[in-house]
Write a structure and sequence with these properties.
Number of helices: 0
CATH topology: Rubrerythrin, domain 2
Helix content: under 10%
Oligomer: single chain
Bound molecules: zinc ion
Number of domains: 1
Structural class: mainly beta
Distance between the termini: 44 Å
Shape: elongated
Radius of gyration: 12 Å
Length: about 60
């Protein structure tokens, strides 16, 4: 059984393995963004956009 994730960026819904844990980083299959698991509520997984530290790379 899989859990459902809704991408906070593009609103795509996709599934992740049932053994996903808080703090795990998953990639949205739609927009490719990296999402960090912040909460697991039953079959629903809440995520936030992974903040990459050191945003000034490229300068
Ligand atoms: Zn997405």
């Amino acid at each position: 059984m899989a859990k459902k994730v809704k991408c906070t960026e593009c609103d795509a819904e996709f599934e992740v393995p049932d053994d996903v844990v808080v703090g795990e980083v998953i990639s949205c299959p739609d927009c490719g963004l990296e999402l960090e698991v912040v909460e697991i509520e039953g079959d629903t997984v809440k995520v936030k956009i992974l903040q990459v530290s050191g945003e000034d790379w490229g300068e």
